[in-house]
Structures are given as structure tokens and as C-alpha cells.
Write a structure and sequence with these properties.
Number of helices: 7
Shape: globular
CATH class: Alpha Beta
CATH superfamily: P-loop containing nucleotide triphosphate hydrolases
Order of helices and strands: EHEHHEHEHHH
Strand order of the largest sheet: 2-3-1-4
Helix content: 40-55%
CATH architecture: 3-Layer(aba) Sandwich
CATH topology: Rossmann fold
Radius of gyration: 16 Å
Structural class: alpha/beta
Strand content: 5-15%
Oligomer: single chain
Distance between the termini: 9 Å
Largest sheet: 4 strands, parallel
Number of domains: 1
């Protein structure tokens, strides 16, 4: 049975680093929308087009993920999944394709996130966004940490 891995956490929490590790350990296709977005559109996080572009990229990556799961390839979606409703939606999608799902949550303190953000924003990158501190703080206010029941691998109930 193939597995859909959901990387959950805010920017700078270490999601992509862990996703790269899981990519090798679990022989999985890693799909990180920020890498696609920055290469296609540059550092546009503060533009009015950003959210629409990002949504389109995530939709395209889901199409690729769904086909991969059906073909027997494990997939890692490095989307962040900030709210429970979105996590549950993607877990249901995996179920409908006959795949199991796992949540990988990176719980990092606000202080550490802001420290990492400051460091990241000083570096030139074609893979990650530079995010203003105030924008990051607004993200923190929106984020819903997963509850312990979400951490469990969902397989048997979906088999």
C-alpha cells in the first residue's frame, strides 16, 4: 500500500529538510510547492498574484501526487497543511485512492521560527521564499497544530 505523507508546520519549521530525509528513507516522490513557485515566479510573496499562483501549483502537484499514489509510488506533500480541515481533506483523498496517510508535524517555538526566518531572509535562494516578519507572525496566528489523533498513520480503517 502506498502512503501519502503530509508535512505539517509553519515556514522555517524544518518541513523540507525532513521531507528530503523521508524522500530517501521511504522511497517517495517529494513535492515541495515553494521550490516550483520560486523558480517559476521568483520572490513574489508580497505581490497580489502570489496566493493564486501558489494555489495553482499546489493543485497541479496534487494531480501528480494522485497519479503517483495510484501507480504505487509513495508521495510526500510538503505543503504545510496549516489547518485540520485541509489535512483531513488530503487524508480522505488518499483513502479514496487506496493509499494510507501519515502526518509529520514539526513543532517549533515562535522564537525559534523567527530566528530561522531572519537567517533564511539573509540568504539568496531559488528554493524558498523570503518572508517579512509581520507576515510570518500572521501565519503563526492562523496555524492549527495537529492533535494527537492526527499523528496516527491511517491505513487499516481505509483498507
Amino acid at each position: 500500500m502506498t502512503t501519502l505523507h503530509l508535512m505539517v508546520g509553519l515556514p522555517c519549521s524544518g518541513k523540507t529538510t525532513l521531507a528530503r530525509q523521508l524522500e530517501v528513507e521511504r522511497s517517495a516522490l517529494r513535492l515541495t510547492p515553494d521550490e516550483w513557485h520560486v523558480r517559476l515566479f521568483g520572490q513574489d510573496v508580497e505581490t497580489s498574484e502570489h496566493d493564486a499562483r501558489h494555489g495553482l501549483i499546489e493543485a497541479l502537484l496534487w494531480d501528480l501526487a494522485a497519479r503517483s499514489l495510484v501507480l504505487g509510488i509513495n508521495v510526500i506533500l510538503d505543503f504545510g497543511f496549516w489547518v485540520r480541515e485541509e489535512r483531513e481533506d488530503f487524508r480522505q483523498r488518499a483513502k479514496e485512492l487506496g493509499a494510507s496517510s501519515e502526518v509529520h508535524f514539526l513543532d517549533v517555538t515562535e522564537e525559534e521560527l523567527l530566528r530561522r526566518l531572519a537567517e533564511r531572509n539573509t540568504q539568496s535562494s531559488e528554493r524558498v521564499f523570503h518572508i517579512p516578519v509581520e507576515m510570518m507572525k500572521s501565519y503563526m496566528a492562523l496555524f492549527q497544530a495537529p492533535t494527537p489523533d492526527e499523528w496516527e498513520r491511517r491505513e487499516e480503517e481505509y483498507a
